[in-house]
Amino acid sequence: MKFLYFPRRFYYVEIIFNEILFLTGRDKKIINFVWWVENVRFINLSDKLLEIYINHTGLITGVMNLFEVTHFVPKKSMYK
Questions:
Q1: What is the distance between the alpha carbons of residues 46 and 34, in angstroms, rounded to a whole number?
Q2: Mostly located where (predicted)?
Q3: Is the pLDDT of residue 39 over 70?
Q4: Helix (H) / strand (E) containing 17
């Protein structure tokens, strides 16, 4: 089992896991939780963040489509 330890970071993270509150800090070793510890506050927002991401992508696509249509000149070649 690999233990991950970051001595330069000094902050406390509260993790609620199976109704137990864990407090982790600089001098406590974190086991297999490092990849999601910093984003644990977004767990309840994951569906909203995905919806916002999809809407943002659609908005960018629509704006770029309108930009291309407004700059389109039928008499001019596409490669010029």
A1: 18
A2: membrane
A3: no
A4: strand 13-17
Q: Is the pLDDT of residue 53 over 70?
A: yes
How crowded is the C-beta side of 9, counted as CA atoms within 13 Å?
14
Question: Which neighbouring-strand residues pair with 17?
Answer: 20
Q: Say which residue the tokens 């291309």 belong to.
A: 68
Strand partners, 6: none
Distance, C-alpha 68 to centroid of its chain = 30
**Residue-level length of the chain:** 80
Dist. CA 77–CA 80, nearest whole Å: 6
- Structure tokens belonging to residue 13: 């993270």
